[in-house]
Amino acid sequence: MSRADEASGRIPLVLLRLMMDQSWEQAAAMVADEFEGYLPQTSKQLAGLEAFIDVLRLELAEAEVQIHNNHQFNYDVWDKEYKVAVQALVTPCDGRPKRYLIGFFTVDREDMISGASLYYAECAGSGVADSSGVTR
Q: Which of 44, 69, 105, 121 could bridge to 87 as Cys pair (CB 3.0-4.6 Å)?
């Protein structure tokens, strides 16, 4: 893998770090205007930069994010796009349960994020105990 390939594979990590730092303008500068994304668990389409940034701002603002895995798994020679998978643990500061963010990002030839599918998975035992003491 060349240095250019490695740099492209790190673009989603840089985006997440900027969002954790509340650097929304810098994060937005890394997303292509024609961005298209999808939240499969809610069947929500994300069309355009603002929709994507708004969703991540809601999910990542005031949260601690730990990157657990980052893998560049595909390069499309024809479209000159990289596919990058990221797994991160998101710990909200507002008492919501910890969740894993699993994201599949498309990084285009200009090193801009042009697409993403984002999944969330709750961590076992991170829910709230009910009156019987059972964690849900």
A: 69
Q: Domains in the chain, please, with CATH?
A: 3-122 (3.10.450.50)
| The residue type at 12 | P
> The whole model's pTM is what?
0.78
